[in-house]
């Protein structure tokens, strides 16, 4: 089962799935991502290019809803490669992320072998722990799928032990399955790791990666994102919603809205048939953009009419 080592993959190798070689620079990466509907700034374009060129994971950190997870989806589309997602959660361990054995099928096979009078214990054990009964979890699938984009989402939800395991895997892109041997990725997957910073992730994992902090975008860039994602929404409505969200972020909220909430709000208003928004409609639809009772109550106490009448980009 052992394959060629991946650490020797050259920076000049063909870009996964593109058929046209590696991007020549950050501008080409930016162009491919924008064709996928994802707008990037200079820093992120450079980080993505270096991640592809150097075979290093990108560690994306920032508030929820600022586009970290969608970067992985956009990269997969831009590279014409499948996206494999590992959603982290409290208590996740290596077996849940890497591989497991299909116990029900193993048990059925064992019973069938017994009924058929199979007495060769070594043969039976070899069959039970053969590839046909192996359940590949996201990390193993990423090592076996060439090419692919691996998204390790919300790693801050996992514990230190899982971080250490992930660091070891990403250092060599190798995994050993005792019953089957060692598997090495023929070429490293493109890895995007995200964190909402609910806790500090260990420095060792960050050092293995290229780091990028995701800020909330400015008015012009956020408006461009909304217009690109929701081309059917009127320009006036997109501008008003973007301006209101920018203003709400300046308030002391439990959870400031991200770009995802801006898009959700504009989409909700468009679904109501609105071509523009006033204070009354904004209050009625706050649930599309704010997700905490305290934040909704605070927003209701604001002068939304004045915020809507402020010059665009200065709210």
From TrEMBL:
Protein name: MoxR family ATPase
Signal peptide (residue range): none
SUPFAM superfamilies per the UniProt record, alphabetical: P-loop containing nucleoside triphosphate hydrolases (SSF52540)
Pfam families to which the protein is assigned, alphabetical: AAA_5
Species per Swiss-Prot/TrEMBL record: Streptomyces scabichelini
Residue ranges of domain AAA+ ATPase in the record: 54-229
Gene3D superfamilies given in the database record: P-loop containing nucleotide triphosphate hydrolases
Cross-referenced CDD domains: AAA
């Amino acid at each position: 089962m052992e394959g060629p080592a991946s650490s020797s993959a050259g920076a000049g190798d063909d870009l996964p799935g593109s058929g046209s070689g590696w991007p020549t620079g950050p501008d080409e990466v930016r162009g491919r991502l924008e064709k996928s509907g994802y707008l990037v700034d200079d820093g992120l374009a450079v980080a993505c290019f270096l991640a592809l060129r150097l075979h290093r994971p990108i560690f994306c950190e920032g508030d929820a809803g600022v586009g970290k997870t969608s970067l992985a989806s956009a990269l997969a589309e831009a590279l014409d490669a499948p996206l494999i997602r590992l959603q982290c959660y409290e208590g996740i361990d290596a077996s849940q992320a890497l591989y497991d054995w299909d116990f029900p099928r193993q048990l059925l096979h064992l019973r069938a072998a017994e009924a058929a009078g199979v007495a060769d214990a070594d043969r039976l054990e070899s069959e039970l722990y053969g590839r046909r009964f192996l359940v590949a979890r996201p990390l193993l699938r990423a090592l076996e799928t060439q090419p692919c984009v691996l998204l390790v989402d919300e790693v801050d939800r996992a514990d230190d032990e899982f971080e250490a395991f992930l660091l070891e895997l990403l250092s060599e892109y190798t995994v050993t399955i005792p019953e089957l041997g060692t598997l090495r990725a023929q070429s490293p997957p493109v890895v995007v790791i995200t964190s909402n910073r609910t806790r500090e992730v260990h420095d060792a994992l960050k050092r293995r990666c290229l780091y990028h902090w995701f800020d909330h975008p400015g008015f012009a860039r956020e408006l461009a994102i909304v217009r690109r994602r929701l081309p059917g929404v009127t320009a006036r409505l997109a501008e008003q919603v973007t301006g209101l969200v920018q203003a709400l972020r300046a308030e002391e909220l439990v959870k400031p809205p991200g770009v995802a909430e801006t898009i959700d709000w504009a989409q909700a208003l468009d679904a109501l048939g609105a071509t523009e928004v006033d204070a009354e409609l904004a209050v009625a639809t706050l649930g599309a953009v704010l997700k905490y009772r305290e934040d909704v109550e605070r927003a209701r106490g604001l002068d939304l009419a004045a915020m809507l009448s402020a010059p665009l980009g200065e709210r």
